[in-house]
Amino acid sequence: MDYINIGNVKIKKTAALAPMAGVADTAFRTTAKRFGAAYVVGEMVSIKGLAYSDRKSAELLTITDAERPAAVQLFGSEPEFVPKAVEIAERYSPDIIDFNAGCPVPKVAGNGAGSALMKDPKLFGEMVTALVKASHVPVTVKIRTGWDAEHINAVETARIAEECGASAVVVHGRTKTQMYSGSADWSVIAAVKQSVSIPVIGNGDVTSVERCVSMYRETGCDLVMIARGAYGNPWLFRDIDDYFEGRPAQPAPTLDERLNVMREQIELLVKCKGEFIGMKEARAQAAFYLKGMTNAAKYRGLCGKLSTQDDLYELIKLIKKENE
Ligand SMILES: Cc1cc2nc3c(=O)[nH]c(=O)nc-3n(C[C@H](O)[C@H](O)[C@H](O)COP(=O)(O)O)c2cc1C
Question: What DSSP assignment string belongs to 13-41?
Answer without folding.
Answer: SSEEEPP-TTTS-HHHHHHHHHTT-S-EE
